[in-house]
Design a protein that fits this description.
single chain, about 325 residues, alpha+beta, three-stranded antiparallel β-sheet, 9 strands
């Protein structure tokens, strides 16, 4: 009898332990639990951490994350409003805010990830297709950091956008949350991870960049040639002014020198009548030498000073 009591007591203890183990469960600070009975949720979700109890063997615990969860989209080829195709890679952060509703609609996180694929990829495609390429890759109508004429010309060539990349992300986030509001989750953040051009668009963009830089280079080259012409014109004008001024000064110096020489000659030859006669003769000879040659024909009056010397030579 004593042995049977020991066996019965042992069995009872084991059964009690199994019942306690099956009925007790722990909710961690990073978890939230939904209790189900025969596959259907029972009561409210358990979101406070601590030791909890349930009906053993009948009820089941379903654990869900309380922390932020990651969603990483697949790169998709999306057309823009201006008919340009780009590859868009996105990511988001989301959280389970209503575990009971989440369990009813999604069952588990895998189902939520699949539903988020449909919502976020669809909203991304819709909003990208409704806007031009510049609005998907630029955030605002910013002024390039480059200084000088190049920066101003590049700034002039940039198209003005009404909706930028950041605003597009916010619009997708708001629209996606509206569609996910009955799923027991909230999408906390949405971002474009990467936007790449498809090969055809890349070639067009590179060609446009090249033509734009060529246009800027041609404009600078034209402006440089105009500036060079202006500088050369000013140089020629200044050179002629300098030459003219130098010629004027040289002529003034020569005139003063001739006047001074004439005064010296006059004072030297104006001593006597014979010296004056000699001076007149020498000046006449200089005139003959500078004026006549073997082919020169002249008509002189008999009163000319030169005539008397030619007559005396005859």
């Amino acid at each position: 009898m004593k042995k049977n009591k020991i066996i019965f007591l042992s069995i009872a203890i084991v059964v009690l332990l199994v019942v306690v183990i099956q009925s007790a469960y722990v909710v961690k600070e990073t978890e939230q639990v939904v209790i189900t009975q025969f596959g259907k949720p029972v009561g409210e979700a358990k979101t406070e951490p601590g030791l909890k109890f349930k009906t053993p063997f009948i009820q089941k615990t379903n654990y869900f994350e309380k922390r932020y969860l990651e969603w990483d989209g697949d790169p998709n080829q999306v057309p823009t409003k201006d008919k340009k195709f780009i590859f868009v890679d996105t990511y988001a952060r989301w959280q389970i805010t209503d575990p009971l509703q989440f369990f009813k609609r999604m069952t588990n996180e895998r189902g939520a990830q699949s539903r988020l694929d449909d919502i976020l990829d669809g909203e991304t495609r819709d909003y990208i297709a409704a806007h031009d390429l510049e609005e998907a890759v630029r955030s605002q109508n910013r002024v390039p950091a480059s200084s000088g004429a190049t920066g101003e010309m590049i700034s002039d060539s940039l198209a003005t956008i009404s909706v930028g990349r950041e605003e597009l992300q916010d619009m997708i986030l708001i629209s996606a949350n509206q569609k996910a509001q009955d799923l027991g989750i909230v999408i906390l953040d949405f971002r474009f991870k990467r936007i790449n051009y498809v090969q055809e668009v890349s070639a067009q963009v590179y060609e446009r960049m090249k033509s734009e830089r060529f246009r800027i280079a041609d404009k600078f080259r034209s402006e440089g040639q105009g500036e060079a012409s202006r500088i050369n014109g000013e140089k020629e004008r200044e050179l002629k002014a300098i030459q003219s001024e130098a010629y004027r000064k040289a002529e003034e110096i020569k005139g003063k020198a001739d006047a001074k020489a004439a005064a010296i000659y006059a004072s030297a030859y104006d001593q006597t009548s014979a010296s004056r006669e000699l001076y007149g003769f020498l000046k006449s000879m200089e005139t003959f030498e500078a004026t006549f040659d073997t082919t020169t024909s002249v008509i002189l009056s008999t009163d000319s000073e030169l005539f008397k010397y030619l007559k005396s030579m005859k």
